Amino acid sequence: MSIEARFKPLLEQRREEHLYRQRPLSFSAQQAQMQINGIQVVNFSSNDYLGLANHPDIKQAVLDGLANQDISYGSGAAHLVTGHSLQHHLLEDELADWLGVERALLFSTGYMANLAVQQALMQPGDTILADKLNHASLIDGALHSEATLKRYPHLDMKSLERRLQAIKEGQVLIVTDGVFSMDGDMAPLKEIQQLADSHQAWLMVDDAHGFGMLGNQGRGSFDYLGVQPNQDTVLVGTLGKAFGTSGAFVAGSQTLIESLIQFARPYIYTTAMSPLNALATRAALKLVQSADSERFRLQQHIKQFRDGALKLGLELWESHTAIQPIVLGDSETALQWSEALKQKGFWVTAIRPPTVPKGQARLRVTLSAGHTSEQIEALLSALKEIKSRP
User: Fold this and answer.
1) pTM above 0.85, yes or no
2) Among all residues, which ones are annotated catalytic?
3) Fewer CB within a 10 Å sphere, N or C end of the chain?
4) Is 65 exposed, middle or buried (0-12, 13-18, 19+ CB in 10 A)?
């Protein structure tokens, strides 16, 4: 059978079910006001929560790096060969100091970090207990490990406790997002950490959407909720969201990081990220640490949007983060609303199955400190007009 014979019917089925995906083409820098697919829009779909992706300090760091004869654009090799540069090393140290952990380890993407941790740490006979709405990369990491994967209902601590009590042998790793990427709600990390401690389980938290946005100096969900990670806690963060650069990191104990260096195949066999990106992220980390005014402005934007959307009678999830989903139900309606907003100058992505459960298609509104209150009010006005259409 040819590739066309196998996949052409599947592609057509996706079109018919309003699930076909297409890549929008950006013609401008990543910021609140953008040109996408040739039209000027206010971007409400980016994860650039602090508005740093186009920050002049980060761009200047790259320019300075290009002029430095000791910094190359490409790393040339994996970290364990010759690709681990001084810029990578310094960034790892600075991330660890920021989070108050022993060490941090860089990865090229958050997806790779989530694959690496679960593959490296878990062995046959072990069990991964994962929140039902974990990010796809966490699910794939669990499926590619040698452990048994069991999922508990979203944020259901009683179900998690029952599953922990039922496991009589092997190591258990509890895996959860800190802030859930499609719903915007937060894991109850205090309760999860307590359950992990009482059952001698390890805990892995992907805080991709919490780091930079929440907590003192943007230290993330643990700091925001007043929870202290322990030596068996694994923190995962990405750099392509609030940091405005790219890549990811894992943070935790000395033993954790050394174990990943020795046993994590996605780390061992991947070329290191560009040293220039590491240099840019070092500049971004300083901006994140001092971004209290941006975090305050973002919280104001969240309140403004939620208050306005609820007055319009729109169905929102219980989210107090920058991720504000408007649940519309079926995929066709979500696409229609997204297209209508696009025609009014707002880019808001329609999220459909299988990314979210069937019947929960939505508009995923993401807010940024880079937005203005006027832009948010204009979005609410556009939503009001669309909702009132017959």
Assistant:
1) yes
2) 181, 209, 241
3) C
4) buried
